[in-house]
Amino acid sequence: MAGYSLRQAGTRLQQYAQALLKGGRIDLPFDNLDSIADRSDPAAGGLRIAHLEQELELTRRNLRSAIRELAFAKAGRKTIEKEANAANEQSQSLSCELRRLRAELQSLQLRSADASMCRQTAARQVSGLTLRQRQVMDLVIAGHPSKNIAVDLGISQRTVDNHRAAVMKKTGSKSLPALVRTALAAS
Length: 187
Fold this sequence. Notes:
mainly alpha; 7 helices; 81% helix; rod-shaped
């Protein structure tokens, strides 16, 4: 034996075993086991078993810790995937909203162009009226009856009716509300 007697090895083995039973940790360098006793010695085998059991327990602890960390990583990945899916859905929703707003803008631009053309057309129609026809149109739009317009302008009611018919024909209006819209668009 290299430096230890069998009795010393047995005593040391007992100390290690008691420490293991109490739940303590024993640091046994595996390469020093040969210096304690010969491999064929039962005490050395007991020390190797104690050392291997200790390493097995450490490996189990490390494995449990790794499993916990893996579970946390999986949970974190699932959370990140949920957040990514939510962001993707929000992006798609915003894209749809953007397309809808672009279509609405184009529609408004077309309406604006149509309104601009209507104003130009109405302005041309109203500019084609004579001064007297304009006076009659303004009083008709103001809500005056033909009889009162005739008195105000000093002309006959029949002349007012003729001017009124000419105004309706030149503006292309088929009703009084259409005439009002044309006059408003022209102004």
